[in-house]
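F.,

This is the one I mentioned.
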């Protein structure tokens, strides 16, 4: 369905042209910053069907959205994910189809993802040390993920970016190693400040917090970072590593607020349209999707109306944690 109606614009004049769709809250990892060890997942009946997710994708593209990120939970554990991506890849008007993954299934799926029309992949990688990787993900196998990254490189996507969440006592000493790993492979890397989403097994996130400025200072004696005005339409602020193809991005919800240029919304696996990652403002789209008969125009009208609820900025506060009670896996990172 080509884009035929006026763009989605919120009360503050920001155009929303990017949506992140979480297609499952489930995951084969249990990363310490994202989930509790014993997570309770949504009942299956609450999760949107693949057809319902596709109806959402069509509605957003009809409303001018040109970029969809498929995420989760771990999107590649959802049965039928590849078929869904293939259908999305055919949407006229969609310029970019991208996914965020933990990389554990990439060896098997990279080829099909490319064939489905996925343009770019973000792969989470917090450590290059097998034991530590296991500790941070609680269950993940580093070697499998590294092979997945190589599989994605061999297939040749328009872009591959690593995402690393840096925690003071866990992996801060690896930021330079991670940047070198990216440089050696001509891929990008973004460092993400941990966000206080959900309560986590008694961990105090404020104690682990490392700001983007601190990471940049840590890197600067070893790699020359040239400020770049380039953007991928996401929240990363990028620096080009001099003499390489690699860009280093910083996602800094705490230290450098990026809300004024926010162009995105999220939909959770159960169909809640989240107007902001750091606020509870949401509209339940499931009733519109499950209306019988399904009315695409009513769904589009509900999405358009929801734009009035998009808040000016997030309200993350590490000391008053948690402000937001949903975990990242339920949110769609
Ligand atoms: N499972 C996939 C993955 O890990 O890439 C996609 C979903 S995951 C929720 C998306 C991104 O959110 C990952 O890069 C992860 O590191 C990041 N993330 C999870 N919890 C976070 C938190 N509390 N603060 C900041 N980033 C977080
Ligand atoms: Fe799973 Fe991704 Fe959350 Fe890790 S960050 S637990 S891989 S959803």
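My design for it:
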């Amino acid at each position: 369905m080509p884009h035929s109606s006026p763009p989605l614009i919120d009360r503050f004049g920001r155009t929303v042209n990017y949506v992140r769709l979480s297609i499952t809250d489930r995951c084969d990892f249990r990363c310490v910053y994202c989930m509790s060890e014993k997570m309770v997942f949504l009942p299956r009946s609450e999760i949107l069907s693949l057809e319902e997710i596709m109806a959402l994708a069509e509605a957003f593209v009809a409303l001018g959205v040109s970029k969809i990120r498929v995420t989760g939970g771990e999107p590649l554990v959802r049965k039928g994910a590849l078929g869904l991506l293939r259908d999305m890849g055919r949407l006229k008007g969609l310029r970019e189809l991208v996914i965020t993954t933990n990389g554990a299934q990439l060896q098997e799926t990279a080829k099909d993802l490319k064939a489905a029309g996925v343009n770019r992949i973000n792969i989470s990688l917090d450590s290059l040390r097998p034991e530590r990787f296991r500790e941070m993900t609680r269950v993940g196998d580093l070697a499998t993920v590294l092979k997945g990254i190589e599989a994605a490189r061999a297939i040749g996507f328009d872009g591959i970016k690593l995402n690393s969440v840096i925690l003071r006592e866990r992996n801060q000493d690896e930021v330079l190693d991670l940047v070198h790993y990216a440089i050696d492979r001509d891929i990008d890397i973004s460092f993400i400040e941990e966000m206080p989403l959900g309560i986590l097994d008694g961990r105090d996130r404020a104690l682990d917090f490392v700001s983007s400025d601190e990471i940049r200072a840590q890197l600067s004696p070893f790699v020359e970072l040239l400020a770049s005005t380039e953007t991928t339409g996401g929240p990363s602020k990028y620096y080009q590593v001099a003499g390489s193809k690699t860009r280093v991005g910083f996602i800094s919800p705490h230290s450098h607020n990026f809300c004024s240029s926010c162009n995105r919304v999220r939909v959770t696996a159960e169909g809640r349209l989240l107007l902001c990652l750091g606020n509870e403002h949401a509209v339940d789209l499931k009733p519109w999707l499950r209306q019988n008969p399904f009315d695409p125009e009513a769904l589009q009208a509900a999405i358009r109306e929801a734009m009035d609820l998009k808040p000016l900025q997030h309200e993350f506060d590490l000391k008053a944690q948690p402000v937001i009670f949903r975990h990242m896996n339920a949110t769609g990172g």
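The chain has one domain: 8-330.

Talk soon.
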